[in-house]
Amino acid sequence: MTEAASQDRPPEDPAGITVRGLSRRFGSVHAVVDANLVVPPGSVTALIGPNGSGKTTLLLMLATLLAPDAGRITIAGHDPVTDPAAVRLRMGWMPDVLGSWPSLSPRAALTVTGQMYRMDRSQAARRAEELIRLTDLGDLADRPARVLSRGQKQRLSLARALVHNPRVLLLDEPASGLDPAARRDLQALLRRLAGEGAAVLISSHVLAELDEMADAAVYLAAGRTASADAIASSSARERAWRIRALNPAVLARELAGTDAAVSVDTFGSLVHVGSQEAAAALLARLVDAGVQVTEFGPAVGDLEHTFLELNRPEASA
Q1: Which of 8, 36, 50, 263 is deepest in the core (most CB within 10 A)?
Q2: Is position 132 within any domain?
Q3: Sequence-ordered list of residues with C-beta below 8 angstroms from that of 24, at least 6 positions apart, any chain
Q4: Residue 161 domain-assigned (yes or no)
Q5: Domain check: are 208 and 283 in the same one?
């Protein structure tokens, strides 16, 4: 299960990402307010929040592209405000939309990017070839970028972020435009990079995918990172479980005899239970009653459940 990655004052991790008391405003708008997080090396951390929550502003500060008004950041042991060059040598940045040189092929773009990181041309060409294979751009490697689809440009953007073998990765909606097979490959690649010691921070609205790859999560709302206590409380609240059976009528009859709140939609029965223990007991009861259960699991993933609970109007009141 994905763990909370937010603490009031996280311990510093010099090899990964540490954010303490970070704030940034634009006029009267407080985009980020006293944000705190830590992303240790060897892990994938999800950055989650509704539109307008401050995620992009936070990522821009981490990426050395925006200075904070207050607080401190360290990335791989360096401060992006006082030593942005050192951070950029150790960090790969993939924004939501990265402009491509339309007349350059992926091979040429990656080679030029490598040279920007002070590789000689032969080194840059070798690295470009590695990344073309890694991101499955072989059939497109020598075609101009203007003919690439949105998903293909995303793969090129990721390859550019990886050119210099960064130890820290900042990814903003990296799966946008990718087909299911490419999304699966992306998940496997990010887990592999984390397994090799990289600290990966990934922002996405597709929470089901983050559930499958993230070790921890940071929740941002109105520019503030949720506390560990708020996350734990929200994740523990009653949730809906999806149940299907070979005979829906038999399932409905058995559920009618329970104290659980039950609703039915086109996808089957939704049963609200207060804990995993209660869900396990309900499943055992149904099986003992002879119900041929074909599906039993949470209606939404852990991250989505926690996100929705944190952002309920009464939760923020």
Answers
A1: 36
A2: no
A3: 31, 32, 57, 61, 66, 68, 69
A4: yes
A5: no
CA dihedral 222→228→232→234, nearest 10 degrees, is -10
One-letter amino acid for residue 45 of the chain: T
CATH of the domain at 298: 3.30.70
pLDDT at residue 8 in the model = 53
| Residue 6: predicted pLDDT | 44
Q: How far apart are CA 222 and CA 306, in angstroms?
A: 16
The answer, as to whether pTM is greater than 0.85, is yes
- As for how many domains the chain has, the answer is 2
Q: What pLDDT, on a 0 to 100 scale, did the predictor assign at position 317?
A: 45
**91: containing domain:** 3-100+148-233
Q: The dihedral of CA 73, 78, 82, 86: what is its sign?
A: negative
Please indicate, yes or no, if residue 138 is contained in any of the structural domains. Answer: no
Per residue in 37-81, pLDDT tens?
A: 999 999 999 999 998 899 999 999 999 999 999 999 999 999 999
Final residue of a structural domain among 195, 214, 233: 233
Match 């929705």 to its residue by tokens. Answer: 308
